[in-house]
Every structure is written in C-alpha cells, then in structure tokens.
Recover the amino acids of this structure.
C-alpha cells in the first residue's frame, strides 16, 4: 500500500470505481455469499484513507483530504 501512503502524504484526491458504502466491496463474502468481518484489499485501502482523515463524496466517488 506504499502508493496509497505516498498519495496521502501528498494530499492527493483519490477517485474510486467501487462503492465504499457497500459492505460487499469492503468485506469478503463467505461461501454462502454472506458478508464476513475480513476486509478485502479495497476495504483495507478505504480503512487507511479513513484513518488519514479522508472523506468520501458519493456524488464524485472521490476521497478528499
């Protein structure tokens, strides 16, 4: 996740394609299609952005510092 840490240090705006408001994009699914508590790689990135103080704009699908 070095690229993301570097982008955060530069205060870059991060545009995403997947919806971070949908738990199915943030957490892995079990064999029955149920959401688990294990983060996906995208979920880990969203968590890192949130910890860095970024906010998500659902109209533009961008995280901003």
């Amino acid at each position: 996740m070095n690229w993301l840490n570097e982008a955060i240090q530069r205060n870059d705006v991060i545009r995403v394609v997947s919806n971070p408001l949908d738990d199915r994009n943030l957490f892995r699914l079990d064999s029955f299609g149920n959401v688990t508590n294990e983060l996906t790689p995208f979920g880990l990135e969203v968590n890192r952005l949130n910890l860095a103080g970024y906010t998500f704009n659902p109209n533009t699908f961008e995280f901003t510092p």
In short: The mean pLDDT is 97.
